[in-house]
């Protein structure tokens, strides 16, 4: 009889485990209708620290569903090209809209998405770009997350150039930052 009671209690506890895990993990991340703000940075330098670049990116978005977000992203970059006898610096920026689909509902939420916008400034030819992106948000608190993102952007000046630009005139952009859902 004691073995039967222990077995019944064990089965009840094991049956309740998925509900406990689900209740615990559902406390992290956004819900439909909430907003998000994130700020990210990037940087690089040559081996002698004579030249380098710094960048800052800010996102403001809204959750169309628990898994789908859309918003606008602004990036600003500064580069100082240094070296022997060479000193030049320039600014550039980009503004784009984005849509991302988030997977999973736990603390770690990978995502895939797309963006469309423009790039402008001293160090680039003003043009449009479209891009694909992937990354991960890791929730360290209920509404606060760390962010890592990689974007593949292909540049074009007209719609005729867009098809060729996907392979011929593309760049990678990487950012690391943090964000908050509100």
From TrEMBL:
Bias (Low complexity): 36-45
| Name the record gives this protein | Outer membrane protein with beta-barrel domain
Keywords assigned by UniProt, alphabetized:
Signal
Renumbered to this chain, the signal peptide range is: 1-23
> Which taxonomic lineage is given here?
Bacteria, Pseudomonadati, Pseudomonadota, Gammaproteobacteria, Halospina
Q: State the residue spans of region: Disordered.
A: 25-46
Superkingdom: Bacteria
